[in-house]
Design a protein that fits this description.
Length: 179
Amino acid sequence: MYAGETAATWLSELRGGLSWHDPAWLAGGRESGLDINGELLFVTPFPRAWAEGLSPTWRWLAMPRPHIGFTANTAGNTSSGYAGATWTVPLARDVFRRGDAIRFDIFGGAAVHDGLRNTHLTDRKSLGSSLLFRVGGEIGYQFTPRYSVSIFLDHMSNGGLSRVNEGLNTVGMRFGIGF
């Protein structure tokens, strides 16, 4: 996860999958459709020495991985591009066999979207601004150090910085390939 330790020296992982766009059971969703999601995670920009002195329990805090990604809605509703940082917390190793693991990711950053900022349409969200905050979490199973599958939840909103702030949620599943 550190610069110089991967095949490309800067790319850590590629993740991609599908998500459920703004589900009604999760905070009153109104938009619909299936989303296609793709994300690139880069190696942490911080030197290994920053994490080595920390307890293994807290080492993940010194290892954020920058990410960029997109979510494209297949029903013509809000799509977005995003960037930020991901922190990976190892929960368990060698769970079912040697080399596998369960992890939890926490991520945050900013997103831009093509959705509506202020609308009275009953099937669309009023997001308040074109630039939004994006936060979420993901739980994943690493089959091997290179391949994983995960379930994620993310939330985008303007954080109350605009008069209108309905927010948008997605729930999905994606596969990862580490480098």
